[in-house]
Every structure is written in C-alpha cells, then in structure tokens.
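Re-run with default settings, no changes from the original entry. Doing this only to confirm the output is reproducible before filing.
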Amino acid sequence: MERFLNYAKVCLVLCLCLWGQLRTDAQSLTAKLAATASITNQSLGEGIAQKNQLLLDMVTKAGLMPILSNGEEYTLFAPSASALTHHQNDSPDQLKTYLEQHIVKGSLTTEDLKDGADLKTINGNSLRICRKKGELLVSGVKLAKSDQRYLNGVWHQLNGSFQASKSTF
C-alpha cells in the first residue's frame, strides 16, 4: 500500500509539472498571437492615407508611396504635423530628400531599437538611437507614439523631425 501511495505521489508531481509546462507554453503562444493580432491588415501607405492627409500628400508628391505600399518592410519615423507644415511647399525633390531621411529598411519596433545603435535611412543618412531616463530618442528626437504595426512595417510618430545630416556610411 505504501508503495502505491509513493507511486501516486510521483504521478501527481509529474502531472503538476507537465500542467505547469503546458500552461507556460500556452501563455507564450497567447503572447505571440496577441503581438501578431496588433498588426493591422494594411500597408504603411494605407496607414498614412487613413491617418495623416498632409503626410499622404507629401509622400505622394515625393514619389515615395510605392515603396511604402509594396511588400518590402520599412520603418517610418513620421515627422510631427508642425514639422511637416514647414516642408509642405517644398519641391518634389526636396520632399523626397526630407522624407527619405525618416524611412529605414526593415520592420523595427521599439524593442529592436537598441541604445547606441545606428540606423541607415533609405537615402544613406545615419540615425542614432538613444535611451535616456525611460525615453527613446532617435537622432535627438523623442518618439511621441510608437510601434504602430502594418503588414509591411512599423510607424513611429516623432515629436519633431530629423535635420538633414551628412551620410556616415
């Protein structure tokens, strides 16, 4: 009888361990599904069209809508509305140069933006990531809203815009 009780205790411990592992796996799967569910069913270009008419007009005028709407992944560091108004009367070439310094190849969330990292924009400029006092800065500009995920990338809203800089690559 004592042997049977020991056997039952071992089985109970094994079942509890197995249940704990299954529960952990289920939580991990749930977290992954939740992250995937946060991706909208639109391209970055469609997101721009829905969220910001001025940015849409400028991206279209600059000829950048095709790259933000195709299957390649990009990260857009969208300039603030006040920064955009300073450039709304720029020529298409000036707009293209200005906006290209806000776009990076690849889909980068805030988790991917490591302190001290340099990102290469699609026009070859460099953006520096800095984390200070719980704030995330990209080339000295604070993110106002981050990690808006789309089918082909991520949108981060800046609290300003990047100044033109010389390429370091």
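Confidence is low (pLDDT under 50) at residues 29-37. Residues 39 and 149 are 5 Å apart (CA to CA).
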